[in-house]
């Protein structure tokens, strides 16, 4: 007679446990959507590795601090643009709005209003442009592209008229502190940008207003049916965009040492690029805050690395453009 075989619970081999954890990760990595969703962090890590190999000064503390300070303005503008793009819109006037804010600061400083009041004038000047954008789009039913393209031109003209086309020199100890002050390797501009990013994340994902922004961008009809005042939300996001552009104006004046009336279109293109790289859907309804911040860091690292390698500035917009086109292609594969 044969002895009965004892049966018991099957034990998992030790080798199976890691496989069970790694397999889903490998499966995700094989999907195009994974690369589309993680384009900004993957790209940033890749650039850091490449440039640290090609340039011994890229990862020095001094260069890291300089990159973070340089990225601060772009981070603020990218966060601002994220609110607008989440609703399915776009703010083409954001860099011109920042310039109007800078000129407003310079004129107020010349008039002897002091740093705080001049800063309020800068933000208020920018908010006027944002209010016009919001009213044109939400109430006037003008398409966001045409409305903000028009205000871009208007803001450009106003900045040149009020400044007489000349830079306004600003000698402010507060701005000097903002430019040169730091905590460790983190300069005050990047600290301010991160604080703004954290507040924006809280507003977008932890408040009713943030939910309304995402709902208005996903389906305005459904949002209105559920009690969302979509026109009011659109006005609000353009005000947020302009207000943050006004804050960026302070960082710009601090960095340059003057209120420049000339429009820097690179900020406009790069902030939209950072938002796209960060995974925000251009069709609206999909919000991100951390992603655009990483996208802004990526573009700053790209420009910095190319400069360290001695690449001509003529080629740098080409490199940024290629990155943006690649990111735009990847957005087709993002999960809805």
Automatic annotation (TrEMBL):
The keyword Cell membrane applies. The chain crosses the membrane at residues 39-58, 64-85, 115-138, 145-163, 183-204, 235-256, 262-282, 289-308, 314-333. One of its GO terms (molecular function) is transmembrane transporter activity. It is a multi-pass membrane protein. InterPro entries: ABC_transp_permease. Signal peptide: none annotated. CDD domains: TM_PBP1_transp_AraH_like. One of its GO terms (cellular component) is plasma membrane. It is found in: Cell membrane. Keywords: Cell membrane, Membrane, Transmembrane, Transmembrane helix. Pfam families: BPD_transp_2. This is ABC transporter permease. It comes from Cryobacterium melibiosiphilum.
